[in-house]
Amino acid sequence: MGKPRKVEFLSWGMRGYVKDVEVMQSGAGGLRVSPAVPTVANLALAVFWACTALAGWGEQAFCGEGGHRASECLEGFETAVLASLALAVPAAVVAVAAWTLPGARRNAARLEAMLTLAALMWVVAEGVVFVGGSLAQR
Asked: Could you tell me the pTM of the whole model?
């Protein structure tokens, strides 16, 4: 970590200074990924999961055959969505906690780890919906 310094910023037409900003540098001399990248990935995965599980994309994909939806398929898909909630809710909590808890937000490695964990949880939650929807079709 670098020495704290004054950094000038320009936001929404206002100019100001932020005191005691630590400059992040990679330990290996390489480039660090901005925390915005995993944050946007988490948001995209959350929206994708919500559209699949809650907005009807999954029902249509797995149980919608020409407008006919078997009740067994819908029940199986609902079970898959409920099972995926066990990962989706903690993923949302971890992603929000990464930015709201000062100890996580101010530590680059911890922030990166929490956002990566949340993204992996979103991927697994979507996988649960996919596997459950595929099984519900049978």
From this structure: 0.74
